[in-house]
Design brief:
The protein has 14 helices and 9 strands. By secondary structure, it is of the alpha+beta class. The protein starts with a helix and ends with a helix.
């Protein structure tokens, strides 16, 4: 075979003294001619196989690139839907969760939704608080699962509260706060069983700490409570007995030295409030000093009444917290369909604030706010919605009720 190939190479390639053009297959023996044919056929087959392999490789590469593009597209679509879901949640928590479940990005389970809220990426913490505070079985299960994601073990109560209150914003409604603080107290006592005799004691003290934080660090509160007042406020809450004075003083000092940090939200926090108002619309508002009437855009939400000069304004000209306030009909010779907000419940004036001509926030001293609606029906609607939102220090009422329960626990346990 080797000799035959040498003969073939010699015949086809020639030597230095022969040209390729002089080769004539007819000069080959029949056996050499047959081998030449076989080699040419095999060469053709090899070239075809090589081309087929190239084609197949090209198809595989193309398919892989297509798969990569598809994965990237899927990932891109998933990220886009998640972003849309977060924005929907920030505007309307319930609809946002429904969207994410519908798109398969969340499971309709309290645990999965709690994980999503606890992670909190891109979520407005006011919206998280609103969702967790809703009163229905599913949301309450989400709340419990959310609280269970916090590890309060071996933390003093103030540290645990700081961690808890950083993960969302407490809503304005007393009943929502009550449910949240109840869950917090149960979780804290579960992880730290030797600190408090019962969850009611933990609840009352936690609430007292939050109220102390507000009283010490809110500029609108003029009379700051002393350590002695804080101690007096918490008498009898430990199964009818008193908590150690040293504990209460250390809690007081901790809050006075370092107030609770309020979580900052992405974007304009007020904008979330104004996305889903209880009621909004134009009203005429009478000025305090000069009694002139000005048209303002009002938004009612979160137990506050906000008013703007224009609907496009991002920040309100004034805010009226609906605490210790009542609403009544009024008559005015200049304007029809009038009603008033007035100080009640022992308050001397309405705790409100507004922006002055220089852009500074100043505290209002109104005893009455008089408004005029466009129609009689609109007036009734505003008065109804306002009465529904108005609260008379609900937090103090709630705290008093829970303190009474804590003080009576020892009586019931003895009987």
């Amino acid at each position: 075979m080797k000799n035959m190939l040498s003969d073939y190479e010699s015949a086809t390639m020639g030597s230095s003294s022969h040209s390729v053009d002089t080769f004539n297959p007819a000069d080959l023996t029949p056996e050499q001619q047959k081998m030449l044919i076989d080699i040419r056929r095999r060469k053709t087959e090899l070239l075809l196989e090589i081309q087929q392999l190239k084609d197949e490789l090209g198809e595989v590469v193309s398919e892989m690139e297509s798969l990569d593009c598809s994965d990237e597209s899927k990932h891109s679509n998933k990220a886009k839907m998640m972003s849309i879901g977060r924005k929907k949640f920030n505007m309307d928590p319930k609809k946002g969760i429904e969207y994410l479940v519908e798109k398969g990005l969340l499971q309709q389970t309290p645990e999965d939704i709690a994980q999503f809220l606890h992670k909190g990426e891109g979520l407005n913490k006011t919206a998280i608080g609103d969702y967790l505070g809703e009163r229905n079985d599913f949301n309450e299960n989400v709340l419990r699962a959310f609280v269970d994601l916090h590890d309060f073990k071996d933390l003093i109560l103030v540290q645990a509260l700081r961690q808890f209150l950083w993960s969302f914003r407490l809503p304005g409604e007393a009943q929502k706060i009550d449910r949240m603080m109840e869950c917090f107290a149960q979780r804290y006592c579960q992880l730290n069983p030797d600190i408090f005799t019962n969850t009611d004691t933990c609840y009352v003290l936690s609430f007292a700490i939050i109220m102390l934080n507000t009283s010490l660090h809110n500029p609108s509160v003029k009379d700051k409570p002393s350590p002695e007042q804080f101690i007096s406020m918490n008498r009898g809450i430990d199964n009818g007995g008193d908590l150690p004075q040293e504990l209460l003083i250390s809690l007081y000092s901790s809050i006075k030295t370092e107030p609770f940090k309020i979580p900052e939200d992405d974007g304009n926090d007020l904008m979330h409030t104004f996305f889903n108002p209880d009621k909004e619309g134009w009203l005429w508002k009478q000025g305090g000093r000069y009694k002139s009437w000005k048209r303002r855009w009002f938004i009612l939400n979160d137990n506050c009444l906000y008013y703007f000069e224009y609907t496009t304004d991002k920040e309100p000209r004034g805010i009226i917290p609906l605490e210790n306030i009542s609403v009544r009909e009024a008559t005015d010779r200049h304007k029809p369909h009038c009603f008033e907000l007035f100080a009640s419940g022992g308050a001397d004036f309405i705790k409100a604030c507004k922006t002055d001509s220089e852009g500074k926030v100043v505290e209002g001293k109104h005893t009455v706010y008089r408004m005029s609606a466009a129609t009689a029906e609109d007036k009734v609607e505003w008065m109804t919605r306002l009465r529904h939102s108005i609260s008379h220090n609900p937090f103090y009422d709630m705290l008093a009720q829970r303190k009474k329960k804590a003080q009576h626990n020892s009586i019931h346990s003895k009987s």
